[in-house]
Amino acid sequence: MKEILIILICYLIGSIPVSLIVVKIFSGVDIRTIGSGNVGATNVLRALGIKGAIIALSGDLLKGVLAAWLGLLVGGPLVAAACAVIVVIGHCFPIFSGFKGGKGVATSSGAVLFLMPKIMLALLVIFIVIIILSRYVSLASITVAILLPILVLLFDGFNAYIVMSLIMTVIVVFQHRENIIRLRQGNESKIGQRA
User: Fold this and answer.
1) How many Å from the N-terminal Cα to the C-terminal Cα in the chain?
2) Which DSSP letter does residue 193 get?
3) pTM over 0.90
4) Which positions ≥6 away from 120 have C-beta within 8 Å?
5) How far apart are CA 125 and CA 168, in angstroms?
6) Angle value at C-alpha 121, between 119 and 126, nearest 5 degrees
7) Which of 53, 159, 148, 149 is nearest to 102 (CA)?
8) In Å, how far are 16, 113, 122, 181, 195 from 44, measured between CA atoms?
9) How far, in Å, CA of 49 to CA of 27, rounded?
10) Distance (Å, rounded) from C-alpha 140 to C-alpha 176?
11) Residue 194: is its pLDDT beyond 60?
């Protein structure tokens, strides 16, 4: 029973629209009406600049860390994996903002950072390299999402986190479906472009 309760709590944690709140506080604007319309840190960067983006990114990362920690505390790796998936679902489909949320990258990263720091470090290096070479955050995000379950399998073998990572991959890639179309068409926004 306590496991079900903590999973529900993690969904609510994921549903907290950090970027929406940050942009509203600093500019009085609804972030869904500017830039890409997405409630993620990349759109906050376009709207507010680096400081606002860091605050939004930190909040989304902390949601993932908190959910993974709570799951591990309450029920071990299986519950931690479930909580990590649920917090990402909450972030992408939040009850507090009409089930229209972010793309799940930062919140997934927070959970992976807490549960598998070495894998997160490897993914972060790959993420940074792709951004430096392409300046596409979406391309970097999609790539590391696809690599996540591969690295979990290579470094940790088949464990509770492999299913978690596969589900995270599906969610993140699905949330980036419009970005994939724009990347293929050559009109995806690059990092540094203002809203």
Assistant:
1) 46
2) -
3) yes
4) 109, 112, 113
5) 19
6) 95
7) 53
8) 15, 22, 25, 22, 9
9) 12
10) 11
11) no
